[in-house]
């Protein structure tokens, strides 16, 4: 309702629109945020206000706006860390004003970055004398850098041989995160996919190697797929390439698994112990246990990172090599990563990851007892997460349900939880599924609350009518930010970009998964 329609008590006239308080009343006299003129005015959304707002009121207005956001700790869609110790938060807060790229002004911060890259490279069994690494704002940037390095190295080799370098391609599973599709599109690289099936949710090594040709810049192997958390068989791909005497390198996308597998499954060969692996990315803000956003990328040696991609920045008479897509960025997350590495040590990380695996297995069993089909691995053979779906008629149920995983996602949200539903990758018959990520602060007691609410929501779905379920889904779609179906013109500012046709989502209906 507009201000012109808001009537005063006892029949008094309406508030003047955007009235300015007179001296001695209004904002100053009440001392209350909600007694100020700002409490009865809409929040600015298009133009910068002409006049300032008191800091306390600005804080409260923004905080109130954010109050309808979901609780990050109940957001089980995301791998992103939602807990750090107070000491870590204090260090990061103190570093918020530091621009990481200013090596001359902040040489010790640059050193801490190098310490982290060294430690992560060592964790991945990188050669200590030759490996090189850098921090990024996340795995997406790390992947972009790795793809650039593979493409440039392939191009230089082709040119040295006097051959065309016009049609590079990259091979990967159709279960890759959307940043891989972006990298291929942005850098003009042909995508060659090994599609998943209803029973196989990872890349098939023989199919991947069979797709290679002289224009292949690399094969992507995922250590923990976005949908089911499964580890792809890096060593099998490498062995097949060796057998064929192929020069195609492997990049490992260890965004989620890079800080899990070394502590839970240390004998699994997926990293630089595997001969054809030339680069690895990992997200510090996932199981590296740092708030977003920080990622890392490590190369086996400078041989796999062409020199013409590197820029040198001089500080205190010494040169610091820089290879990033971003230039300015905060130093806080890099400092937070170093804190976690030295605070926890290997045994601390091992204890945390062990607990997460135990809770994931406990949740898996509970969901199986409710009647779900489990799609993820257990006992540390994959990420600490649970992927699941409703059974079909050919899997023992009397008849298919009148509702699907997307309906359950809407219902469980009414209890405060965020659990995403997805449509799987191509060649899975548009299989629907859900995913719960077990993070550091997802305790056994919180898990029990979730199980109770899952049972309750499934019971309600069985009883509620199709019309009610459809209205709930329509309501959620209409109120989504930038929704395709939203009636709010402000939310449709980019509607011309919504019907994408260039991605696996547009071509096959695959849902771009949350990180």
From TrEMBL:
Keywords, alphabetical: Decarboxylase, Lyase, Pyridoxal phosphate, Transferase
Protein's name in the database: Glutamate decarboxylase
EC number(s) recorded for this UniProt protein: 4.1.1.15
Residues with N6-(pyridoxal phosphate)lysine modification: 286
GO molecular function, one term: transferase activity
Catalytic activity line of the entry: L-glutamate + H(+) = 4-aminobutanoate + CO2
GO process annotations (BP): L-glutamate catabolic process
